Structures are given as C-alpha cells and as structure tokens.
## 1
Amino acid sequence: MDIKLASWNVNGIRAVSAKEDWKWFSDCGYDVISLQETKASVEQMPESITDPVGYHAYFASSIVKKGYSGTAVFSKKEPLSHEIELPDPEFQGEGRIVHLEFEKFHFFNGYFPNGGADILDESGKPTGEFKRVPYKMAFFDSFFKYAQKLRESKPIVVCGDFNIAHNEIDLARPKTNVKNTGFLPLERAFLDKFVAAGYIDTFRFVHGDLKDQYTWWSYKTRARAKNVGWRIDYFFVSEELKENIKDAWIENDVFGSDHCPIGLCLSF
C-alpha cells in the first residue's frame, strides 16, 4: 500500500484558489494534502475548500490576528484522531499546527514561525537580532518535545514550512544569508538536533546532494525565474519509517504562490 502526501505553503488560500494554478488541488490525487499560510478562518473559505469532495478536512486558523498564518490538512482516509495547535498554551492561537493520528504514524502539518524583522539600534541600524527568533526557537523546542513523546507509541511524519534552510546546498546564496533569519546558525542547529534525534529529511534521503532544489523564491527581483531560492519546506519522518520511504520530490513547476508543493510517498 502506497500513501502519497503533499505539502504546500499557499500564501493565502483565498488568493490561490481564485487562480488557474489551483487546479493542482483537484488534479493531484494525493491521499493527504497539507497547506500552510492559509490566512483565513473557515468562515472565510468557500465550501469547495472547507468540504472538498473525497476528503476529510481539518483547519487551524489564527485567532490572535486575522488574515495571518493558518494551516489545513485534507485526508482521503479519516484519521483515528485529530487536534490543532501544540499542547503548550504559549504556542497556541496562531493556527500553526494540525496533528492527525493514523494507524501507521502520527502526522503533523506545521507552519513554523518566521524569525521576524531585524531589530534596529538607537541609530536605526540593524542589530543582527530578529524579533521573533526567540519565539521561533521555543516553538521548535515545544514541538520537538511533543513529537518525541508521541513517537513512543508510533512513528512521526511532519511536513510544512520550517522557515529554515538547513545546509548551504539548500539555498542559492548561502554566503550572503548567514546573518539573515532562516539561515542563522541557531536556527540551523535545531535541524541538526532534529536529524541527530533520528528524523530523516526525505528529499535528501532520496536525492542526496542534488543541487539547485528549492521550494521558496522571493517575489522580489524575479527570484523564481532565476531560481534564486531556498529549500525551507520539508517532509521529515522518524527513522522507524526509513524502510517505508519510496520517493520524495519537489513540484517546482506548480505556481500560484511564492512556494511550490513538495511530495512524499510512503509504502507499507
């Protein structure tokens, strides 16, 4: 039995669903589809999204700020259970996590926090410190502890926008971004810790050190046309599922957002 899973930061579900590119959703045939940065409450979405034919739908929307963050998961098979957000109240309210439990694994869809704007000093110069990096790292730590607890009962699959490029190969211009959030040593160290704990970057597992593979391109300076991008969207699985990884890929020919979809096939 093969299970095909997809993850896509759509940068606004209402905007992308009005584009021709949204045909991807109805045509893709995935068993589980995860979306990030939906930027809408359920009441603001059309029924074709909130109750799509053939899928069970689960949403986490921001309640602290409208039109912000948000995640969704669509599954052909009804999960054993589902929950939104992390258990820690400190990291609730932004709609960043949807967690489904299936027979074979726990599944997380995450829109992990961005590091935020650079903090300026009294003279207005950038300090190299970013407003939300402390929150971002605390969020990752809370997620890691929860995933490890659940992993005691069954394996973990987690996908989404991690807002971190792990290694130099994962962004087009590493040298000029070492002091920018998304590629800070502190942020990259979390993914080092994650991998060391037995979580597998499925794309690298399948494709090794394949270069020029990105999932996000800034809308500025026509970055996508020049493939000046970052790989910040991932499917990780805990190592108990290593033998179940059949394929992993990036759909860089799908447009409609500043991110593109990524996919994973697990075979059981």
Note: The two ends are 5 Å apart (CA to CA).
## 2
Amino acid sequence: MHPQKNKDEVSVLVIGREHRENVLVPCMKTLRQHVVAPLETREFRVSTYICVEKMTETTRKHIEQHIIVSDFFEYNSSDQFSRAHECFERVTQSSPELSSRVKYFLKTRPDMMWLSDITFPFHKDAVMLRARRISRGKVTSQHLSWQVGPREECKCADAGCVMVDSMVAVIPKPWADAYFKVDLDTTSKTFPRGRERLDDVEKGDDKLFRLTSDWGDRCPCAVEWDEGTLTLRLASHEALVFISPFNFVLAPPIPGSAAWRAGGTYVRDDDDWETC
C-alpha cells in the first residue's frame, strides 16, 4: 500500500441550503458509506467540506460521529451557482496545498441520500454528471434528474444535444475552474491533456459530449432550466462531459421550497433503460 502522502485526493464538496439535523445526519452517513469509503478502498485520500447557510454546533458534532469533515463553511448566497463558487474558493484558499494533491472534485448536496456506491472508474478527461435533458444515449433514471413523463427527459431539439444537471458531479481538476467559477474568463479555453481537438471524442460512446461555444444556438434545450447556466458556462470553455449514473434520492425539502419533491424523489427499479 502506498504511503498516505502519495495518494491522489478526491475533495468532496457538500453544497446546499439544508440545515435540518434529521436530514443532514442520515445523508452524511450514506455519503460516508457509498462515496467516501469506496474511494478510500481504491486508495484515494478523501477530504470532505460542508458548505451550508447555517448549522448548529450540536449538528456538527453529530455529523462528525459518522464522517470526518475537514472544514465547515457557513454563508449566504444569492443562487446555487454563486454558492458553489464560494464553496470552491473557500476550500481551495483554506488548503493551498490541495491543488498539488487533488485529482478530482466531487460536488454533492447535503440533502442527498445515497442508495448505492458511486460508479467507478472516474473519467479522467470529462466532467461526470447527470443530464436534465438529453437527445441521445441509452440511459436510466440514474442518468437523469428530472422525470416529468414518458420520455419527456429525452426532448432536446437536435441530435447530439444535452443539458447537464447541477446536483452532483465528479470533476477532474483541469475542469474545476470552468465548473465552479461563475466569473471565469471565457476567452481562454483549457483542455485536459490528450483532448486537444473538439472532435476528439470516443466513437460510439453515446453519453459523451464535447460542449462547444455555440451550444446555446445548436441546442436550445440547454437554456430551458436554471441548469442551462451551468451547461452554457461549461460550453464556453468547450468542456467534455460524460452523462453518468448516480444512485440517490433527495430528502423532502425545507418547508416552503421545492414543492415538486415534497414527498421525496421518485425511485425506479434497475431495469429502466430507455434509448433517447
């Protein structure tokens, strides 16, 4: 086994508004069971940071009985993308040596109940995330974050289009700034090593997309939801995204918000493949 100091690191960023202890504690237990522990089994070093609006000291102590937290950050933000940006900045500034160790950032939510182990291996060149809309690919409900009706999630205007979802993502370090930073200069594009050409995408992989700077014109579905903001930001940096399965449900929301999931989120069985 390699010494701890030589391990690649995955930095887990838990970002959201959730503050209820009866939600946070069980969700963090599943994060430990289905994300942190499997990563450690594969000899990754794992650091976990929790970014929320508020949290009591008692809740912190109860969480830390189940998962090691490198730091807690409490602050208010105007929207989910500013919140994620602020979390990323606070984490990287509080631990400057992180940039030399970290191989992936994993963005997740504090109200997310993981149902099974996160999927391996991680894609070394692409941001792994779910889709909100997708026009191609053999997918399941684990690949998609919105289920409004039969095949409704497959409705994108043009073949080869996708709108990404913002709930969860595995982000290789070269794409971290493009994913998290809302004010990043879009005039300079960065490609992970080995992905220099826009058309350099594996043939036959129907869930791998190279987003391009004209994505908003080519794929109108990319701007139908708030997540279109993230899609177009990644497209402005010509990022590679891989639509991937993540098996979780969301806890019932804070009262007065997200009425569409008041009873939690829907779970289908494993045999629910659809071809978009």
Note: Confidence is low (pLDDT under 50) at residues 193-201.
